[in-house]
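queue> pop job 88
queue> type: inverse folding (structure -> sequence)
queue> payload:
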């Protein structure tokens, strides 16, 4: 690789990591995979001298754990509330629609989507509210877990880079 490409790879890597952090909160972006790709590019810029394959393997495992944690947290929240499949689908649609309404949309979209889906499935306001809240809490917990994992990934990368 040409030495002229190293700064470009580092910059692109940093931008991908930043997009990954944003993607942990915004459901339209695959947060941890974007960050992992950024880490690989930054490691490649130094010919894997500072950040080697052991660190990248650890980061890959954390990337997979991030996706699994998000899925399981959402599923657990929905199941604890007795949500139907339609409620979970509604929460997903509500999340994407909420993207267009800034932070309030991101916070209310999943709840309203799950509420609407559950109401359509069971025609019970009470159950729809319970399913909406449970699914929303699962999504919030999943996002918190993803944020914790992505910041751990950043810390591990920076520590390996500095040593």
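queue> result:
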């Amino acid at each position: 690789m040409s030495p002229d490409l190293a700064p470009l790879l580092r910059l692109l890597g940093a931008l991908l990591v930043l997009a990954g952090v944003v993607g942990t909160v915004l459901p339209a972006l695959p947060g941890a995979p974007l960050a992992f790709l950024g880490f690989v590019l930054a490691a490649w810029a130094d010919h894997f001298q500072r950040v080697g394959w052991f660190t990248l393997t650890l980061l890959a495992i954390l990337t997979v754990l991030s996706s699994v944690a998000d899925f399981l947290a959402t599923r657990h929240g929905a199941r604890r509330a007795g949500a139907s499949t339609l409620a979970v689908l509604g929460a997903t649609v509500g999340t994407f629609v909420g993207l267009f309404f800034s932070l309030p949309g991101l916070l209310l979209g999943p709840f309203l989507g799950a509420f609407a889906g559950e109401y359509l499935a069971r025609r019970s306001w009470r159950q729809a509210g319970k399913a909406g809240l449970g699914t929303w809490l699962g999504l919030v917990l999943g996002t918190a877990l993803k944020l914790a994992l992505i910041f751990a990934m950043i810390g591990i990368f920076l520590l390996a880079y500095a040593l």
